[in-house]
Amino acid sequence: MNKPTIGIVVYANPDHYPPTINAVHLLAEHFDVVLIGRNQDPPHWEYPANVRVHRLGKYTSVRERERKSATTKLWEYINFVIKARSLLNDVSLIYAYDPFGYTAAYICQLMQSRSISLIYHNHDLSEQLFPLSSLSGWVHRGEIKWVHKANIVVFPSQERALLFKRLTNFNGQLMIVPNFPRKSYFRENPNFKNILSERFQQPQILLQGTISIQNSLLELIGSLSYLDNLIELKLIGPLQEKDKHLMQDLANCNVVSERVKYFMPVPYNELTQHTWLATIGVCLYKKIDINHQTMATASNKIYEYAACGLPVIVSDQPNYREHLSSEIWVRFADPDNPKSIASAVQDILSDFGEYQAMCLAARRAFEEKYNYESAFSHLLWKIKDLVNFSESKI
Fold first, then answer.
1. How far apart are CA 338 and CA 248, in angstroms?
2. What are the CA-CA distances from residue 79 to residues 57, 75, 260 (Å)?
3. Closest among 365, 331, 360, 358 to 347, alpha carbons compared
4. Digit-coded pLDDT (tens) for 270-328
5. What's this model's pTM, rounded to 2 decimal places?
6. How would you write 213-261 as a 3-class SS string?
7. Which residues pair with 207 in a beta bridge?
8. Domains within the chain, CATH numbers bracketed
9. Residue 35 confidence (pLDDT) above 80
């Protein structure tokens, strides 16, 4: 008997978003999946055999697309919707990510001859109202007008969901699915307990993901001046040229340039090789906007560190304290204060026995509660109910 089919719409390269990858894998255990994304940047992720991946449009990089005119972007979006609509003809449910994906999915749903359940998963909340001279302006207005048609709206944090509800007057069903890693992917390193001593003797602070001054890049470099010369800072991820120059200038000025190691972004399936070898993970966001202030359940890297048995330093802000204050593997630091960051590092590295306990506790916390299988389970049951209802009407 064939499985029901669901469609997943992402107006980006889905390989770039670990929570989306996780959802695709878990959904593919119960449904056939039509995954629709954009043809941007090389694909690198291998999806299950029953996931048909469609990367629409002419291949270009993200930077090339950003430089295109508003008119060109609009026509690309229209063509995306037209092609996506034909691919969604036979699905029993549409799962759409973020405003561009949801708006496209809703228009596709309108053009179908039958009613299809629609789930909207929003990762980053935008309080900015974009001008109508831009594609973003039209898409976000479409999101606000049509979000009420979604059967379920999903956010990675309660705080973002409640603000979204106020901004849009949404009265439908909201669900929270934190951005935890997938347990079936982050299997324990067979040499885990043996590498803890090596980690401790050759300390390496790791920041993976977006590298920017908004993520305490300069403060992290500044903290090295207060730490033992053996301690290095390893950075893996996209970095804007202006921030790179600031990083290099500060590292040279503080005479720590040899202790700052920057690496270009690596594919998600290569990232764990670096994470397992690090000593401490950092996830520091400054109080810039609602997204930065609500990352305690929305940041996948906090829990990717935990999955690899790393103690983690996070921002000393209410949202992080609320969710993580009881975890012995978490330390809090002021993201604007290099001394505070250095103090947290020193606390973690003050005793090997305590460090070892933190590493084991981090891995255990991931296995028991901070994994995507647990986070996604309630939504998965809702999806099954919606698909069964849709199938019963055919």
1. 17
2. 8, 6, 44
3. 331
4. 899 999 999 999 999 998 888 888 899 999 999 999 999 999 999 999 999 999 999 99
5. 0.93
6. HHHCHHHHHHHHHHCCCCCEEEEECCECHHHHHHHHHHHHHCCCHHHEE
7. 235
8. 5-181+372-392 (3.40.50.2000), 192-368 (3.40.50.2000)
9. yes
